[in-house]
Design a protein that fits this description.
Layout lengths: L1 H23 L6 E7 L4 H18 L4 E7 L7 H11 L3 E5 L1 H10 L5 E6 L2 H5 L12 E5 L4 H11 L5 E7 L3 H16 L3 E7 L5 H11 L2 E4 L3 H5 L1 H11 L3 E3 L2 H7 L2 E4 L2 H16 L17 E4 L1 H7 L8 E2 L6
Parallel strand pairs: 1-2, 1-3, 3-4, 4-5, 6-7, 6-8, 8-9, 9-10, 11-12
Antiparallel strand pairs: 10-11
Helix pairs in contact: 2-12, 3-4, 6-7, 8-10, 10-11
Length: 324
C-alpha cells in the first residue's frame, strides 16, 4: 500500500510540475495580437519583426496569433484597422508609429496598447507633465535618440556650416518635437536653423528643394513620410550638393551621410517582452515605464560621404546600403 501511495504521490508531483512549467511559458492559453503598422519601410518593418520574434520566444509559437495589418502610409486607414481589432476583441494591440497609436487610444481604453517607433509619448498622447508612464492602457518603446548629440554632429561633421534646414512632415507630431529640439540647440551655438515642413508626400519635392537651396546642411528626423520619400530627398540633395544628416539608419541608408541611430529591431523586441509580461504575467500596463534603446550607434553612408567628399571620423559604423 505504501508503495502504491508513493507512486501516486510521485505522479501527482510530476503532473503539478508539468502544469507549473506550462503556466510559466504561457502554453496554457492562446492569445491574439493585432499589429497596426503605419507604412512599409525598413525601420518600422524591423520593429515589427523584433516584436513578433520576442513574443513568440516568450509565449511559444503555438500560443500567439498575429493579425498584422499595414496602412501603407495612409494615416486615415489606421482607425479602420484598429476598430477591426477592437471588434474582434484581440488580447493586445501593437501600434507601430504615432498615427497607429493615436487611432488605438481613440478606439479603446480597455484593450492593452503597446506602441513602438514613437519619439515622444507626452506629445503623441497629449499628456501634460509626462513622467515616463502614461497612467492608462498604453505603454511601449521610443525611437528617440539623443537629439542634442545629433545636433552637435552637424557642427562637428560639417566644418563651416552656418545654415541648417530642418525638413519634416507637419502631420507627424513626433517630427515637430525633434526639429524643435535640434533647432534650439543649433541656434544656441550661433547657427541659423530654419524649419521646412511638408504636409504629405505630394509637396515634399517643392519643400525639400527650398530647404536645399537655403541651407548648407539638411537635417531629417525620424519621420515616416520622409522615410517613404528618401530616394527623392537623396536626388535633390545630390543635385544641390546639400548633404543630409538623418535621424535614423533607414533614412540615412537612402539619403543621408551620417546618423546617430537606435536599433528598431531592439525596441521592437523590447516591446514584445513587455507584451509577454502583460499577457502571461498580468503586468499593469498603466504602470509600465516607456523603454528606450540604451545604445544608439553612430553610422555613415559610404556612398554619400564619398559623393560629398566628407571625412568619416573614428567610431562610426558603415551602413550596409546594399541590403536595402
Amino acid at each position: 500500500m505504501k508503495k502504491i501511495l508513493s507512486a501516486v504521490l510521485c505522479a501527482v508531483l510530476i503532473m503539478a510540475t508539468v502544469l507549473s512549467l506550462s503556466s510559466c511559458n504561457g502554453s496554457g492559453k492562446k492569445y491574439t495580437v493585432g499589429i497596426c503598422q503605419l507604412a512599409v519601410h525598413p525601420a518600422l518593418d524591423e520593429a515589427t519583426r523584433g516584436f513578433k520574434e520576442a513574443l513568440v520566444k516568450e509565449l511559444g509559437e503555438e500560443n500567439v496569433t498575429f493579425d498584422y495589418q499595414n496602412a501603407s502610409g495612409d494615416i486615415a486607414v489606421c482607425p479602420t484597422i484598429i476598430n477591426n481589432f477592437v471588434s474582434k476583441n484581440v488580447n493586445l494591440i501593437m501600434a507601430n508609429a504615432t498615427p497607429a497609436l493615436q487611432a488605438a487610444v481613440n478606439a479603446t481604453n480597455t484593450i492593452p496598447i503597446l506602441a513602438t517607433s514613437i519619439t515622444e509619448y507626452g506629445g503623441a498622447l497629449g499628456l501634460k507633465d509626462f513622467n515616463g508612464t502614461t497612467g492608462m492602457n498604453v505603454s511601449g518603446t521610443s525611437d528617440l535618440a539623443p537629439l542634442d548629440t545629433q545636433a552637435q554632429m552637424i557642427i562637428d561633421l560639417f566644418p563651416g556650416v552656418k545654415t541648417v534646414g530642418l525638413l519634416y512632415c507637419s502631420a507627424e507630431q513626433n517630427s515637430k518635437y525633434q526639429v524643435d529640439v535640434v533647432k534650439a540647440y543649433l541656434e544656441s551655438k550661433g547657427l541659423t536653423a530654419t524649419l521646412f515642413s511638408f504636409s504629405d508626400s505630394n509637396d515634399i519635392q517643392a519643400v525639400c528643394s527650398a530647404a536645399a537651396a537655403a541651407s548648407d546642411v539638411i537635417y531629417v528626423p525620424t519621420d515616416n513620410t520622409a522615410a517613404n520619400s528618401a530616394d527623392l530627398i537623396n536626388t535633390i540633395s545630390r543635385e544641390t550638393r546639400t548633404p543630409v544628416l538623418a535621424g535614423e539608419e533607414g533614412i540615412c541608408t537612402k539619403c543621408g551621410t551620417f546618423t546617430l541611430s537606435i536599433s528598431y529591431y531592439q525596441i521592437g523586441y523590447k516591446t514584445g517582452v513587455m507584451a509577454a509580461k502583460i499577457l502571461r504575467d498580468g503586468a499593469d500596463i498603466s504602470k509600465m515605464p516607456i523603454e528606450y534603446d540604451p545604445q544608439p550607434v553612430k553610422m555613415y553612408n559610404e556612398d554619400n560621404c564619398n559623393f560629398f567628399g566628407l571625412t568619416v571620423p573614428d567610431g562610426f559604423t558603415k551602413i550596409n546600403t546594399s541590403a536595402n
